[in-house]
Specification:
Elements: E1 3-6, H1 16-25, E2 31-36, H2 48-57, E3 62-67, H3 75-81, E4 85-89, H4 96-104, E5 109-114, E6 132-136, H5 154-161, E7 167-171, H6 176-185, E8 189-192, H7 194-197, H8 202-209
Parallel strand pairs: 1-8, 2-3, 3-4, 4-5, 5-6, 6-7, 7-8
Helix pairs in contact: 2-3
């Protein structure tokens, strides 16, 4: 099964509850919450209070992606706010194992993300400690970017060494065509924003990714 995690970055923030309810009703498995700080990436999005508010209305797990510097400082606040998965960036920390252990200490899933220019090899020392590896197929920071196909080549490399239960997630430029590339390579979770939220038929859009 492919886990579909719509990115709320593409939702209408003035009608966030409505848009969350619409994707959940249409079959979303998780909600992907993009947290950006304007330092690690050149955009600022939402933080802990909004995540806590979303938790109150979401019947599905919150998949929180920290695109921020010093993510270890924010693990506890986001865990307390209701994150079910916290994914941090390999490039943002000096000791990934320490951050993985910290996330898991709250009884939630730990994910690690790699940017387009980062080699898949950096994942291997931590692959048995992680619940999720997120392969970015765009430069993190903004929605609506074009899929970088060569980044998808990392998926089978990770899959080959991954434990059977590892979630390999892909985020960036995902639509029906790019989803097929990613799942054929071994991805089992997809993040999509514009393709889902801007669709005339959200249910069909989600189904097309599977």
């Amino acid at each position: 099964m492919v886990i579909i995690s719509p990115s709320i970055l593409s939702a209408d923030f003035a009608n966030l509850q409505r848009d969350i309810e619409s994707v959940v009703k249409a079959g979303a498995d998780w909600l992907h919450i993009d947290v950006m700080d304007g330092h690690f990436v050149p955009n600022i999005t939402i933080g802990v209070p909004v995540t806590a508010s979303i938790k109150k209305i979401s019947p599905v797990p919150l998949d929180v992606h920290l695109m921020i510097e010093n993510p270890q400082k924010y693990v506890k606040p986001f865990a307390d706010a209701g994150a079910d998965i916290i994914t941090f960036h390999y490039e943002a920390v000096s000791n990934p194992k320490e951050v993985i252990d910290l996330i898991k200490s709250f009884g939630i899933k730990a994910g690690m993300s790699i940017k387009p220019d980062t080699s898949a090899d950096v994942v291997f020392p931590f692959i048995n400690d992680l619940d999720l590896v997120l392969v970015m197929t765009v430069e993190p920071g903004f929605g609506g970017q074009k899929f970088i196909e060569k980044c998808a080549d990392k998926i089978p490399v990770i899959k080959e060494k991954a434990p059977e239960d590892l979630i390999i997630q892909v985020d960036g430029g995902i639509n029906a065509q790019t989803a097929r590339i990613c799942t054929s390579y071994g991805a089992n979770s997809l993040v999509a924003g514009n393709y889902i939220y801007k669709s005339d038929n959200i249910k069909s859009a989600i189904e097309s990714l599977r």
